[in-house]
Prior knowledge:
Rossmann fold; 7 helices; 7 strands; 5-stranded parallel sheet; 41% helix; alpha/beta
Amino acid sequence: MLIIGIAGGTGSGKTTVVRKIVERLPEGEVAILPQDSYYRDSSHLPLEERLEINFDHPDSIEFELLTRHLKDLRKRKTIEQPIYSYLTCTRAAETIPVKPCHVVIVEGILVLTNPELRKMMDLKVFVDADADDRLMRVINRDIVERGRSVNKVMERYECTVKPMHLQFIEPTKRFADLIIPQGGNNDIAIDILTKYIENNLK
Length: 202
């Protein structure tokens, strides 16, 4: 089993990179574990407090469960991936069964911050993008997908997203084996990454 970690700032284009890789590989060869599925359940908190959760801090992720699921996949066991809602900031009762595959991609802003997780990765990738480009994507995504106002998005960016990026996410670039500038628009880098995966599949 080949385990690939794909990190990078919020709005850097990680999801696009992952989608383009999956599109270029045989169907059923790749399982994806999004970090966002492993945010800690906050159903015990009032909604007002849940909406103020710092999603860009490593403590917000249940890395223990994520690493355990990765180990189970290595043992050829099917896992039950959590479903997390940004609208309610809680985990759903339902889960998504994920079967072991030849390639497992662990994707998210903080996946390279955890030492145990890094040790399990055969390849570590950092998707890089200009801060302005990332901010524009974050504004569009948070308004459309998460029902936030422009003012709320900008306030969150200044108070949380930007400082957390500088403190936790940007420093993990030094752990990367491959850095992809220009995010999902860098087809050459995505081709190189896809070739690496194809060679390992052979």
